[in-house]
From TrEMBL:
Name of protein: Thiamine-phosphate synthase
Assigned protein family: Belongs to the thiamine-phosphate synthase family.
PANTHER family: THIAMINE-PHOSPHATE PYROPHOSPHORYLASE (PTHR20857), THIAMINE-PHOSPHATE SYNTHASE (PTHR20857:SF15)
Residue intervals passing through the bilayer: none
Keyword Magnesium attached: yes
Reaction catalysis annotation: 2-(2-carboxy-4-methylthiazol-5-yl)ethyl phosphate + 4-amino-2-methyl-5-(diphosphooxymethyl)pyrimidine + 2 H(+) = thiamine phosphate + CO2 + diphosphate; 2-[(2R,5Z)-2-carboxy-4-methylthiazol-5(2H)-ylidene]ethyl phosphate + 4-amino-2-methyl-5-(diphosphooxymethyl)pyrimidine + 2 H(+) = thiamine phosphate + CO2 + diphosphate; 4-methyl-5-(2-phosphooxyethyl)-thiazole + 4-amino-2-methyl-5-(diphosphooxymethyl)pyrimidine + H(+) = thiamine phosphate + diphosphate
Cofactor binding notes: Binds 1 Mg(2+) ion per subunit.
Annotated organism of origin: Fulvitalea axinellae
Record carries keyword Nucleotide-binding: no
Binding annotation for 4-amino-2-methyl-5-(diphosphooxymethyl)pyrimidine: Q33, L34, R35, V36, K37, N65, T104, K133
Xref: SUPFAM superfamilies: Thiamin phosphate synthase
Gene that this polypeptide is encoded by: thiE
Amino acid sequence: MISKLHYITQDLAHKTHAEQTEAACAGGVDWVQLRVKNQTDERVLEIALEVKRICDAHGATLIINDRVRVAKEVGAHGVHLGKTDMPSKEARRVLGAGFIIGGTANTLDDIRALEQAGVDYIGLGPFRFTETKKNLSPVLGLEGYRNILGGGVSVPVVAIGGIKHGDITAVMEAGPHGVALSSLINLAENPSASAKKVLDILAGKTA
Ligand SMILES: Cc1ncc(COP(=O)(O)OP(=O)(O)O)c(N)n1
Ligand SMILES: Cc1ncsc1CCOP(=O)(O)O
Ligand SMILES: [Mg+2]
């Protein structure tokens, strides 16, 4: 089952990926994407082993961003691949049928191609500008999600990019299965509380 909240770690000077993961899981997150940029596979593998222990302790799904080899070696549940990463069909050959493979989309054409490629979920964005990722694709806004998702998509889609607590209800009304969030949780004064607040909004407990 694909979670409604995809929590994503980020490179921060003051907090390790393991510390970020621990805080997010303490807030109830059950789906973690390890997103480490500009490090060797060997270093990402070390970090992934640490993060995997935390995910296992909390029963959380672990997805590795970008690195198919690391995902396989660490025994993660899945990998997330964008347009400049290994093609998802090739990743499927390397990883096998049981592995979760996520892909990135910015347009309906991207979504159709990913459906054909057999991905398990799609990250569609960005919703708005965000500092968390360089070289962003064009911002979609609510209208973009309504247009792209209006015709129906056969794979679960998570909205991503600059999403704040106050956006979640309206974003979900535009049709995605869930949301993917990084800085809203990692840069919060209390990351666990921020994650819990997201889950409460997704569960309809608060706006
Ligand atoms: C859930 C989700 N959606 C989209 C992305 C972006 O992936 P990508 O386009 O490969 O960019 P990087 O994250 O690798 O910088 C994602 N990571 N997760
Ligand atoms: C990885 C990624 N892909 C599109 S936007 C984005 C960053 C999401 O992070 P944030 O939730 O901090 O904007
Ligand atoms: Mg990528």
